[in-house]
Amino acid sequence: MGINNKRSTILFPILLAFAVVLGMVLNSVFQKGAGVEPGIFNLQGSGSKLDVVLDMIEKDYVDTVSSGELVEKAIPAILKDLDPHTVYIPAKDLQRVNEDLKGNFGGIGVQFIRYQDTVAIVRVIPGGPSEIAGIKAGDRIVMVDDSLVAGVKMSDNDIIDRLKGPKGTPVKIGIYRRGEKKIIDKELLRGSIPVASVDVAYMLSDSIGYIKVSRFAATTYFEFSEGLQKLAAQGMKKLIVDLRGNTGGYLSEATNMINEFLTEGKMIVYTQGKSQPKADYMSNGNGQFQDLPLMVLIDEASASASEIFAGAIQDNDRGRIVGRRSFGKGLVQEQRSLPDGSALRLTVARYYTPTGRCIQKSYENGKEDYYNDLNHRFLHGEFEKQDSIHFDDSLKFETPGGNIVYGGGGIMPDVFIPVDTSGYSNYFRELRSKGVIYQYAFSFVDDHRAEMLELKDYKSVLAFIKHQPVVKELVAYAKNKGVKPDPHGLAQSLNVIEIQLKAYIARDVIDDEGFYPIIKDLDKTLLEAEVLFK
Length: 534
Prior knowledge:
Elements lengths: L1 H32 L15 H12 L6 H13 L7 E3 L1 H12 L1 E4 L2 E6 L2 E7 L4 H4 L7 E5 L2 E2 L7 H8 L6 E7 L7 E6 L1 E4 L3 E6 L4 E6 L6 H14 L4 E5 L8 H9 L7 E6 L6 E4 L11 E5 L6 H11 L4 E4 L7 E7 L5 E10 L14 H5 L1 H7 L16 E3 L5 E3 L8 E2 L9 H8 L2 H12 L1 H4 L5 H8 L4 H11 L6 H24 L1 H8 L4 H10 L1
Helix pairs in contact: 7-8, 8-9, 13-16, 13-17, 15-17, 17-18
GO molecular function: endopeptidase activity; serine-type peptidase activity
Keywords: Hydrolase, Protease, Serine protease
Protein name: PDZ domain-containing protein
């Protein structure tokens, strides 16, 4: 009995090992029959599961594939179920994405439009490479280096990419100019071209100043301060800050701007996240316009830093918010650089207005539903009627002055102004959708450039246009572009068409300083704000 037990003790491990090996051999035979090669892989490596899978594919996949391309597709898929504002920016897109926020880019310093299959220069940036080289508004760019850009199918972005480049790098431009028989060749060194974030600062009346801020970029506080000082020197006693269409940008720029209007020790905004301790942004009392009567204009496209600005003014009872409910973005992103030159904009915190509101709208139903929210609002009548907008009572907050405000889904203005579609006809909509009004405006300026060269303000532009048959010429121009004349539609939309046309002409001559004072007459929200101040 003892000997048998001893033999069993010796033989059992040998038999077990033989069985395991036999099983592996049989398994190998059956797997070969199925067309699958056997393999044993160690998944205990130092990399993540994703690294191991990519390594397997790169080494052993039946066809040659690019692991880099797989990664580019995998990262957005990983982020898909996070919030809508955590996004991956490929290296090829990063420069373009960052330019609006940097406040400058490397280029030649022109604004252009596509006009009759040519690249027509609308405006030359003062002091830029093109002005130094003698390029003028009205010139046509036909060549960029060795690429023909006139009379060919090429997108605006493709043309821009050829004109842009690092500061100090050369670029050759071929120019067609009226009156010249030959193409004019210019070689320029690209310069640092400013990207303005404050579109305009001018006086609406003897006492009311107006500033339009289009984004919160690295230079916005500086531009904003310059605008305020300019208006103060012109006698400003009240101010309207226009943030409509402003989708946000740098938090620090917004807080510095808000600080100009608050007394010391007021909460501007605070942020907090899982890995981000609460950070309070308070006013320091150094603002130069703490007593200036203030209104802020917002709409459904005002988001992020715009909502921080409006929320701080509203929650501190510092001014009135006028317009329509804002977008509803209450999340803070940090941009993290990745080794290949790409970047991840990662949501790291939520921000809260001074009363404690988070105005982030829900994204529980996915990103598509999130970005379709504005369409839902429109179909629900929210752009036209204030009483179609409802907030949850659990999100009710009270300002120090006793005003009721709500969190969740944006900033609700103190004074609601519905969207204005008066004077809109099918004829006008077709003109607008095909860009005919803007194209004719450029054509008009191009034909009268020599006569309009000395016009320096919008009033002189209006005086010049007054004696020109611009509407009659527009109708004929539109007909050649495939828009049939419509006397009834023209009569219905005459005021809108005339004002837009004059504003576009003025913009082509003297930039936004000409555009905004004219287009104001169609701006129901701004006109209402001006009346409220008076």
